[in-house]
Amino acid sequence: MLKLNGQWQAELREGRPVLAEFGKVKGFCEQVKREVTQVEQPEELLAEDFMNFVFGDQNVPAPKIVEGLQRIFSFLP
């Protein structure tokens, strides 16, 4: 992710998003508000956050992630 004009955007390489290796992301656990022992597979965390978004659960570890999903999906018809 890159911050451009005050907004976070995906880092692109040849027009495609760059996927970061889990162990190389600084502050990952702090950003997703989970303990290191809970972070076995980052894609599982995203799936959990997506389900919280779908079901409207407001009691989530990282509300900013759910808010981001709301912003993304608000642009879809």
How many structural domains can be distinguished in the coordinates? Answer: 1
The total of helices stands at 3
Residue runs with pLDDT of under 50 for 5 or more positions = none
Number of E strands: 4
Choose one word for the global shape. globular
Q: Which strand order does the major sheet show?
A: 1-2
Structural class: alpha+beta
Intertermini distance: 25 Å
Please provide a written account of the structure.
This protein has 77 residues and is of the alpha+beta class. The chain has one domain (24-77). 39% of the residues lie in helices and 13% in strands. It contains three helices and four strands. A two-stranded antiparallel ribbon has the order 1-2. Strands 3-4 form a two-stranded antiparallel sheet. Helix 2 packs across helix 3 (63-73). The longest helix is centred in the middle third of the chain and has 14 residues, at 42-55. It is globular, with a radius of gyration of 14 Å. It starts with a strand and ends with a helix. The model has no long low-confidence stretch (mean pLDDT 79).
Would you kindly provide a brief summary of this structure?
The chain is α+β, with helices and mostly antiparallel strands and 77 residues long. The protein has one domain (24-77). The chain has helices at residues 28-32, 42-55, 63-73; strands at 2-4, 7-9, 12-13, 16-17.
Secondary structure topology:
Elements: E1 2-4, E2 7-9, E3 12-13, E4 16-17, H1 28-32, H2 42-55, H3 63-73
Antiparallel strand pairs: 1-2, 3-4
